[in-house]
Design goal:
The protein is of the alpha/beta class. The chain is built from 14 helices and five strands. It folds into three domains: about 100 residues, Response regulator (Rossmann fold), CATH 3.40.50.2300; about 45 residues, Arc Repressor Mutant, subunit A (Orthogonal Bundle), CATH 1.10.10; about 250 residues. The chain has a five-stranded parallel β-sheet, sandwiched between helices.
């Protein structure tokens, strides 16, 4: 049984139309006299067609037709006495399949309905074809990006990378676009953990540079490093927003960004001893938020090696936090700060022991671990006496060298993780 919803806006013989429809075996399941409510009524009733009668179709009637084209597509017929050319064009643009001006008659009704249904079917075919083309275009972009990941991680050619994706799609019975998206997501997971981990380090490095300026040590270099930190934070936040804002972490990224704005207000002004404590507190607040983001990304990641990447990345932050505390202790020594320094030393050493024993390794990684261990021992030796300016200068220099080494080490772990991703794809 064919079902029709009627709309009678300033109706033209609506009773006659209803009788003729029912006489043709078509059921009228409802009649709506408010065009503003038509779309909702059609969505609820789910008719096979909408037939509207109106002396002069209103804007709301055309809007209802447009909305139904998205919400509940079905043939839409309008009977009217309005021959305004602009309205005829608008009817076509808004999804009306038959706009009949002064043409209603019982004997013509079946053919009008058939024409409207035929136009509707043709329109749906075109929409499906367009949607398919769009989907294939987006899928092709995903495949190209995934091929790039595999080419870098496995050292294969473009054709070989595509064959890996195609084979995996066949074995898992998934579209190649779905497989490509999975490869890209795994690749982005490592970069996101690395970037958010950098934010932890930068929060502490900013305070270290600020305190170094106040201590009068290599002031120009420290100010330049401070400015570089500001640029890096802004860049990392921008990359993270693009990379993970659609994955459910937007609120956490926003919290890091808010903490950064509080910190930025102080660190971009001329260093002031009276504001050092506030700067440090805001830096620690940003550190906490960045740590939460990094931990959340690791827990939500697709590969177990994200934990190794997180641990290595945290060493960057600890190298700067330890140096920062040395400057703060020189300015205002307290038992609490000294206790915190001892705790950080223990954390750094524990992480070094962990990294020395993880299976995700290579000759280059082992070489950098040895360099990091050497620089770390040099820094630990200096921590036994940090009361004089000369020692503070050495602490600053070695902390920067140590940072460079562990930053390089973190990048190597990320690259090693990419290789694992490629190997996993290759062996499925």
């Amino acid at each position: 049984m064919y079902k029709v919803m009627m709309s009678t806006e300033a109706p033209l013989n609506s009773d006659e139309l209803r009788n003729d429809l029912e006489g043709a075996g078509i059921t009228v399941i409802g009649e709506n006299q408010n065009a503003a409510e038509l779309a909702h009524a059609v969505v609820r009733a789910a008719p096979d067609m909408v037939i509207a009668t109106s002396n002069s179709p209103s804007n709301m009637l055309f809007e209802a037709a447009r909305m139904l084209g998205t919400l509940a597509p079905c043939p839409f017929i309008v009977f009217t006495s309005d021959s305004d050319t602009s309205k005829i064009e608008r009817a076509s643009d808004y999804g009306v399949h038959a706009y009949i001006v002064n043409g209603y008659a019982r004997h013509r009704l079946p053919s009008i309905i058939q024409v409207a249904r035929a136009r509707f079917r043709h329109e749906q075919v075109l929409k499906d074809e367009l949607s398919g083309l769009s989907q294939r275009f987006e899928e092709r972009k995903l495949v190209d990006r995934a091929k790039g990941v595999l080419m870098r991680s496995r050292g294969v050619t473009e054709d070989e990378a595509f064959e890996l994706l195609r084979s995996l799609a066949m074995r898992t019975r998934q579209r190649i676009g779905v497989v490509a998206q999975g490869v890209i997501d795994m690749s982005h997971a490592g970069e996101a953990v690395n970037r958010s981990g950098q934010l932890r380090m930068l929060s502490q490095r900013i305070v270290k540079c600020y305190a170094q300026v106040l201590a009068g040590l290599e002031t120009e270099d420290a100010l330049q490093l401070l400015a570089d930190c500001v640029v890096r934070v802004e860049a990392n936040l921008g990359i993270l927003r693009k990379a993970i804002s659609t994955k459910g972490y937007g609120d956490i990224v926003d919290r890091v960004a808010a903490s950064w704005q509080d910190l930025k207000v102080i660190c971009t002004e001329k260093p002031d001893p009276a504001r050092l404590a506030l700067l440090d507190a805001r830096a620690d607040s940003m550190l906490k938020d960045a740590e939460n983001l990094t931990e959340f990304l690791e827990a939500s990641g697709l590969v177990a090696s994200l934990h190794v990447l997180n641990v290595a990345g945290r060493q960057r932050m600890l190298s700067q936090r330890i140096a920062k505390l040395c400057f703060l202790l020189a300015i205002d020594p307290t038992d609490a700060r000294m206790l915190q320094l001892h705790e950080l030393v223990t954390r750094f050493q524990t992480a070094m022991d962990y990294l020395s024993n993880v299976p995700l390794s290579s000759e280059a990684i082992r070489a950098n671990l040895l360099r990091a261990t050497k620089e770390w021992h040099s820094l630990r030796t200096l921590l036994q006496s940090i009361s004089d300016v000369a020692t503070l200068a050495q602490v600053s220099a070695i902390s920067e060298t140590l940072l460079d080494v562990v930053e390089h080490l973190t990048d190597q772990y990320e690259q090693a993780m990419q290789v694992l991703i490629g190997d996993r794809i290759g062996h499925i």
